[in-house]
TrEMBL record, chains A, B:
This is Anti-sigma factor antagonist. It comes from the Bacteria. PROSITE patterns: STAS. The gene is rsbS. The lineage of its organism: Bacteria, Bacillati, Actinomycetota, Actinomycetes, Streptosporangiales. Residues 2-113 form the STAS domain.
Amino acid sequence: MERVPILKLGDVLIVSIQIDLQDQGVLALQEDLADAVVESGARGVIIDISAVEIVDSFIGRMLATIASISRVLDAETIVVGMRPAVAITLVELGLSLGGVRTALNLEKGVALLEDRDNARAVAVPR
Amino acid sequence: MERVPILKLGDVLIVSIQIDLQDQGVLALQEDLADAVVESGARGVIIDISAVEIVDSFIGRMLATIASISRVLDAETIVVGMRPAVAITLVELGLSLGGVRTALNLEKGVALLEDRDNARAVAVPR
């Protein structure tokens, strides 16, 4: 079974979804990501879906689950690279991606995470 | 035809190869990357092959070609995430990946690019 590689860059894990994930693949990705967050102490998970042409409720649920798992592990999940057509389909399907933050691309996603870290640093001065 | 997404982060383009590329896919990736380097003015291209289980002469040639194209466009290519078994196979096949720099993972690849930029800045003070 092919596994989706998880790239680490500083405090951020980057996942680029390019293959059609079935149930087993989704479970493997969730496990791998949870492991990676714990091992690396990452504060953010960025999931690039620019190669994903169709987002159905299955993928929507996967993204929400990954976001929930990461949140319990104190990492924020940001979905980036959504195609316009995918956004339209999501809304038509009534899927709101609740609890999942989005950004236009990887750079803006990383900027979002940095903003949050800065906000924390201000809130809790050391 | 599926296209491999190209992520941009600062001066660096990141490509994670997860699907088996055939001739058409390789040509498309080379074109997309050349376009992306020119459009973004990127100084580095990092190709993650951690999901690649078998590297044959076809893939080896693709990596070398991408590196050559990038070089003409003044961007350095670094291949990261090579599996141990892939490294062994490469050597056994007599493929040296000439002209392609490698690094253990994305972080070390980015560090390599930054070192180079720093070295340039020292060599050509402004």
